[in-house]
Amino acid sequence: MAVTLMDLPFAEDALEPVISRETIQYHYGKHHKGYVDNTNALIKGTELDDEVPLVDIVKNSDGVLFNNAAQAYNHNFYWMCLTPDPMPPSPKMVELIERDFGSFESFKEQFLNAAATLFGSGWAWLELDVNEKLVITQRSNGDTPIIYHHTPLLTMDVWEHAYYIDYRNDRKKYLESLWELIDWKFVASNIIDYYHDLTEPCRENSELCDYIEMLQHENEVTT
Ligand SMILES: [Fe+2]
């Protein structure tokens, strides 16, 4: 089997009261598992059914396979963005956000607004674009930053299955509650990983080089 359902990085009830055990059981145990199962059924017997990483299946598919594989990927990412032991973003993380959004409060307002106003089902993302700028995007259905060569940093799932059990139709309240569970160390780690994956000439020219050492230090001291 090429794709496996990830283990949750926390217990099913660890995010209560923001996200109930029942929501996790449906969202992770039914919806997320369903995308993984569908992906595996669709790649069975194809060249993608041979230990091909999920990111490569996403990048090399379209139609129903893309929808399911991208949703499997997006959900993997979503769970990693949440923690039952949240800490505020580190000073350097805040500085990087201020570089591109003016202030942290402005970023929070723009991000939550993007998530709240996305029409229909989809995802709000904080991404690092090809110019190494932080950008907020609204992506519908299974759309995902990795097919645009963007690096995902943070996401919030705004499909109704993410919040309807706990919040009914109040997406805004779900988002404001979820904001308190963001794992900012994971957000920073995605920037650090992006930087270290660059080839040497690109790393030397990267505008992120002024941030990486301190981001890394801050992530290590709070481990
Ligand atoms: Fe979802």
Q: What topology does this entry show?
A:
Layout: H1 21-43, H2 54-59, H3 63-80, H4 91-101, H5 104-117, E1 122-128, E2 134-140, E3 151-157, H6 164-167, H7 171-179, H8 184-197, H9 200-205, H10 209-221
Antiparallel strand pairs: 1-2, 1-3
Bound molecules: fe (ii) ion.
Task: Give structural notes.
The protein is mainly alpha-helical and 223 residues long. It folds into 2 domains: 21-80, Fe,Mn superoxide dismutase (SOD) domain (Helix Hairpins, Orthogonal Bundle); 91-221, 3-Layer(bab) Sandwich (minor pseudopilin epsh fold), CATH 3.55.40. It has helices at residues 21-43, 54-59, 63-80, 91-101, 104-117, 164-167, 171-179, 184-197, 200-205, 209-221, and strands spanning 122-128, 134-140, 151-157. It has a 3-stranded antiparallel β-sheet with strand order 2-1-3, with helices on both faces. Strand 1 and strand 2 form a beta hairpin. The two termini are 33 Å apart. The model has no long low-confidence stretch (mean pLDDT 96).
